[in-house]
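Q: How do we represent a protein-ligand complex in a form that can be generated token by token?
A: Start from the inputs.
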Amino acid sequence: MLTELLSRWPLIQQIKTGADGTGVESMSERTRNLRPKTDGAQVAKSICPYCGVGCGQLAFHKNGKLISIEGDPDSPISRGRLCPKGADTFELHTHPGRLQKVKYRRPYSTKWEDLDLDTAMDMVSDRLWESRERTFQEKDEKTGDLIMQTKAIAHLGGATLDIEENYLIKKFFTVGLGMVCISNQARI
Ligand code: SF4
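Then emit the structure tokens for the protein with iron/sulfur cluster bound:
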């Protein structure tokens, strides 16, 4: 018993291994058994949602629940690093103060009201479609050329959109809806 206790003493371990006392030889059993919170989690590759640099992220999840978001060492852009804002992405998703409602002020109203996201999305899509139906031009009025477009709806993308999202936005809005006014704030 005493021999076993002594053999676990970091000083004895240090003497036996010749190490400098800053490695595993100085760890307690409890420390050696500690595991990172991401241990055993599934991981999905993602991109930081905040700015146009597009640093790589790893989103760790267990049983359908997000548990951590870390920098992706395989990203050629950021090589595992995230700035303080990007490193805080986990809280963006999970913070209890995260807004879950949309503030809406009806035409001529002086008050804001809360709308749930589904209602707001339905209103956006209804208005988008109504605007398209009302303003869509099949032919140019002067030349008679086929143009199939509307200039009544525009889309301005933000820096958080990645290449794939911008590709889909361009395809869907231009070819699908006939929109011509499409731009992106970051232009990268
Ligand atoms: S981690 Fe920072 S620098 Fe990188 S994309 Fe996110 S906000 Fe931009």
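Residues 48, 50-51, 53-55, 78, 82-83, 85-86 surround iron/sulfur cluster (CB under 6 Å). The chain has six helices and eight strands.
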